[in-house]
Amino acid sequence: MSEADSVRPSDFIREIIREDLNAGKYDSRVHTRFPPEPNGYLHIGHAKSICLNFGIARDFRGLCNLRFDDTNPTKEEVEYVESIKEDVRWLGFDWEERIYYASDYFDQMYAYAVQLIREGKAYVCDLSPDEMREYRGTLTEPGKESPYRSRSVEENVDMFARMRAGEFRDGSRTLRAKIDMSSGNINMRDPVIYRILHAEHHRTGGKWCIYPMYDFAHCVSDSIERITHSICTLEFEDHRPLYDWFLRQLNVYHPQQIEFARLNLSFTVMSKRKLLRLVEGKYVNSWDDPRMPTLSGLRRRGYTPEAIRNFCDRIGVAKRDSVVDIALLEYCIREHLNKTAPRFMAVLRPLKVVITNYPDDQTEELEAVNNPEDTAMGTRKVPFSKVLYIEQEDFREDPPKQFYRLSPGREVRLRYAYYVTCTGVVKDDSTGQIKEVHCTYDPATRGGDSPDGRKVKATLHWVSAAHALEAEVRLYENLFMKPDPEDTEAGSDFISCMKPNSLEIMSSCYIEPELAGLRPGSGCQFERLGYFCIDPDSTDIKLVFNRTVTLKDTWAKIEKGQKGKG
Ligand code: ATP
Ligand code: MG
What is the pLDDT averaged over residues 521-531? Predict the structure, then answer.
């Protein structure tokens, strides 16, 4: 990680940790964890949590574990485990040898559950899920105690052993903590600790038919790993009393839970459940579709780990939920690629240009700057010849007033090449469509500068027809039409908010031959068009590019507007 990366503002969690270190709490250790449930691919929201947990470990010379919270066998898959490992590594973080699975602790969790039973703090309950809901009460009314709450310790021990042995069917019984059915916090109303689920687990196979619930498994896992600060999102604030209750009753090592606001992004849905729906409903092509807010989607789109880490630093860590403008994420990748991405010329919607006074069989190698932001990136040669392609939208036969690009009689600059003047067009006899634009060039303007100081109002990008490679270019828009995709009519949901044409495929584009040497995945700028990267769908015959982001910075405007308001 670079130097610039290591200078970052503090936040309320780092303040707490600093105080704990000063007070010598936890033997002045800092040990965090990132605990994903392997039931989907990681998204940009997870990146915030990864940067926070691994970032704190780095800043305080502590440790951060990767722990799979795999307590729900029916929704979890090995594919997800592998993708999560790949994404965390790609983001630039290292769990070293500390990769753990909650399922590794199932024996210990079972033993803890038995300990609670023996101490009269847990009981086997025969209420059905529906009955249990009824007994739970509401926010305004206390719950009712289960008729099974007073079972003897012996009976509970026996029943729990039989639950484990597989004697009962799914949902017929649960193990519950005996806390307080009248608690103002519903999480404390005798929450379920274990449920019966006859399902194969991706790691433990058929060994278990009872599985611990999240609230129990999570605090016990944190305790076993001797985590110091258990950082989670705000919706778990009301679960903290339960987290603390379990660890106190068990009388075991006790980390401190700290909650922060989750990341929400405009024009995006974030929960894995919704992202799964987009994949399964074939609204997108895959988890790594470049329109997805998943880390694998962003990577395929051309986002860099540096840009995402930078984004996470900028949004900071707060105690209150908010929505971050997606323009800020785009700003961060633009900022990084502006510094690092080599420039090339590519034409997405080609229009043929013939330089009528240029020798038929001549080719020149013109020098082009690879990155004006970084002279160390040097220059390259771009072939120029009699027949070129320019962008259709850079020519108008009948130019409107504010149009300064190529039109009959008008002189413009071809980037790195020559001044050219349009002398006429050739049209298709039957359709009337323009097939070719004819120009003359001024040999004295080689390199794109006029020795007599003559000014032109436009500089166009181009490629030489004889030398260009054909490519496919995919342009992406937000998946959703509204900043809040959940803001829909009653009876419909975020799916109804999807933009119909969020993917546009341009299948006959022309690119500079030099681009054949670009590494898959690495980003480049197509001059005047945006930042792009090579998609894995590319073949030896045809390169496929994804547009990562356009060149237009909408964030600067938004920020200015916000400052103006404040
Ligand atoms: P989702 O709602 O997207 O399914 P989750 O919280 O169920 O997310 P987990 O796999 O349990 O997903 O998350 C692993 C970690 O990432 C947790 O600590 C969780 O708090 C954090 N996390 C998940 N989503 C976000 C988000 N949008 N912003 C910040 N942190 C998040
Ligand atoms: Mg979850």
Answer: 93
- Tokens matching residue 548: 């990562």
Q: What is the CATH number of the domain that holds 416?
A: 2.40.240.10
Which residues are within 8 A (CB) of 178 and not within 5 positions of it... i.e. 6 or more apart? Answer: 120, 121, 122, 123, 149, 190
Q: Tell me if 35 CB under 6 Å of ligand 1.
A: yes
What residues contact residue 184 under an 8 Å CB cut-off, 6+ apart?
A: none
Sequential DSSP letters for 526-556 = ETTTEEEEE-TT--SS-EEEEEEE-S--HHH
Domain with 327 in it: 272-342+472-565
Going by C-alpha positions, the residue among 289, 323, 291 that lies closest to residue 487 is 323
Residue 560 has pLDDT above 80, yes or no: no
> What values do phi and psi take at 216, rounded to 5?
-80, -50
Q: Which residue among 461, 496, 513 closes a domain? A: 461
In the chain, the number of structural domains is 3
Residue 396 within any structural domain of the chain:
yes
Residue 425, H or E segment: strand 419-427
Enzyme catalytic residues: 37, 262, 272
* Contact 46 CB / ligand 1 (< 6 Å): yes
| Two structure tokens written together for 561 | 């507007």
Look-up: residue for tokens 């258990």? 230
pLDDT tens per residue across span 157-212: 999 999 999 999 999 999 999 999 999 999 999 999 999 999 999 999 999 999 99
Decide if 211 is inside a domain. Answer: yes
Find tokens 């600093």 and name the residue.
18
- Note whether residue 5 is domain-resident: no
H/E stretch holding 322 reads strand 322-324
Residue whose CB lies within 8 A of the most ligand 1 atoms, among 41, 49, 317, for a mutation test: 49
Instruction: Examine residue 309 and state whether it is found in any structural domain, yes or no.
Output: yes
